Amino acid sequence: MTNQTGTKDNPWILKTPPLSSDFTMYKDVKDGKDILVCTVGKTILHYDYRCLNDLHAMLKTHGDWMELGSADEQKPAKEGTVEAWARSESNPVGGWYGLKKGFRGRFGMYIPPLMEMLGLAEVTHDARGNKMKAK
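-> structure tokens emitted (135 positions)
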């Protein structure tokens, strides 16, 4: 795990919170903006890179475990979850951290494992209803 650098040639190899699927993620630049590129099978999602610091700050303020609540973009996110925060007009970017229309959701599935690997958060690994909190 130590030789993963989060680049396109050497992405972070991660598992979803229930530990049921593998995916990769790396940092890239698109249109002059730092992004995270998340590859799940053949699906590629993009998230604003600043979500890592913003989510960590929000979780620190929250101070306790928060449900992940992962949902596809087309489905509503459960209130009070990480997913709902990542879409909220009251978050630091004023809306979605997901950047690819049609694939802006699932934030609560793919960002928490990276936060955990980077040592920024603790994440539970149950079959469903996983939570996270800041480290």
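The chain has a mean pLDDT of 95.
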